[in-house]
Write a structure and sequence with these properties.
332 residues; globular; Enolase-like, domain 1; TIM Barrel
Length: 332
């Protein structure tokens, strides 16, 4: 922690952003994105960060706000990102604070975050666009609307997986496909349909088994590469992943901010793992820091704002299946 800085003030609030259409995965449906916005004000400079508390990880908006506000004295006294890593565990609360501190330093120094972090300048990248879990017919219709997009992520449960993916593939024959089971399968189902999904040229299957069942993958020979999402939050989780996982999904809300996410990407590559950069459903402010990771990823999945009825301004630009770097006035 640095010396006390009496000019610094912490502001935290919960926001609800209505979705344009329901977002359904194997665990349930949401119609609103509830986020926590953090702003750190210091001598006329403002740093912002947004997180999406996730009940699957034992988080709520109120618990995340409480965790952040419990550090208000330290933040206003000059808390830095290094000390923050020790004070909060990986998760949404640390993410919002970490990203706000990065943004504040960029505003104070006049240098973009990518320079401060020593990473390449972010560039436009292809992002997945998500087809939510629905009836076979509805998912086929969604794929038809997105048939010109280069990369689609398809949410599935345990029922009618092949029918759903077959319908999506027929409607979008040239798109790269990622299938996301959100822990909804068991090993028997994975073994039964893995080869069929390979025949549909599925590129990745994301988190097929529930967390805790990963040991069942110890001897699994994957016809389609597997990506760990719920099973991998931070660098500490890498040593516990079975070899069947060839990729991890790095999300700022899981890792607890850009600081840890950068370390996680480097550690994953050192182990020969590929990287997906993912997101929760939030505004462009939640996606902006993840753009610094995109250059290191095989798959980028930052379409969260596309599900919102209205986005935060200045919003990220999405066009023709690509997402563009944020303006400094948004973040970074």
């Amino acid at each position: 922690m640095t010396a006390r800085n009496v000019t610094r003030r912490l502001h935290v609030r919960i926001e609800a952003w209505p979705l344009e259409r329901p977002f359904t995965i194997a665990r349930g449906t949401k119609t609103t994105a509830e986020v926590v916005l953090v702003e750190i004000e210091d001598a006329g400079h403002h740093g912002r960060g947004e997180c999406v508390p996730y009940p699957r990880y034992g988080e709520s908006s109120t618990s995340v706000v409480a965790a952040i506000e419990a550090l208000s004295e330290q933040v206003e006294a000059g808390l830095d990102r290094t000390a923050l890593q020790r004070l909060l565990p990986p998760g949404a609360a640390r993410n919002a604070l970490d990203c706000a501190l990065w943004d504040l330093e960029a505003k104070q120094t006049g240098r973009p975050v990518w320079q401060l972090a020593g990473v390449p300048s972010p560039r436009p990248v292809i992002t997945a666009e998500t087809i939510a879990l629905d009836s076979v017919e509805a998912m086929a219709a969604a794929a038809l609307r997105l048939r010109d997009r280069p990369l689609l992520k398809v949410k599935v449960g345990a029922d009618d997986v092949i029918e759903r993916i077959g319908a999506v593939r027929a409607a979008a024959p040239s798109a790269r496909l990622v299938v996301d089971a959100n822990e909804g399968w068991d090993l028997a189902l994975l073994q039964r349909i893995g080869g069929m999904l390979a025949a549909f040229e599925v590129e990745v299957i994301e988190q097929p088994l529930p967390v805790g069942d990963d040991l069942a993958l110890a001897d699994y020979a994957a016809p389609v590469p597997l990506c760990a999402d719920e099973s991998c939050h931070s660098s500490a989780d890498l040593e516990h992943l079975p070899a069947a996982y060839g990729m991890i999904n790095v999300k700022l809300d899981k890792a607890g901010g850009l600081t840890e996410a950068l370390q996680l990407v480097a550690a994953a590559h050192a182990r020969g793992l590929q990287v997906m950069v993912g997101c929760m459903v939030g505004t462009s402010l939640a996606m902006a820091p993840a753009m610094l990771l995109a250059a290191h990823a095989r798959v980028v999945d930052l379409d969260g704002p596309l599900w919102l009825m209205h986005d935060r301004g200045p919003a990220l630009k999405f066009a023709d299946g690509c997402v563009y770097p944020p303006e400094p006035t948004l973040w970074g």
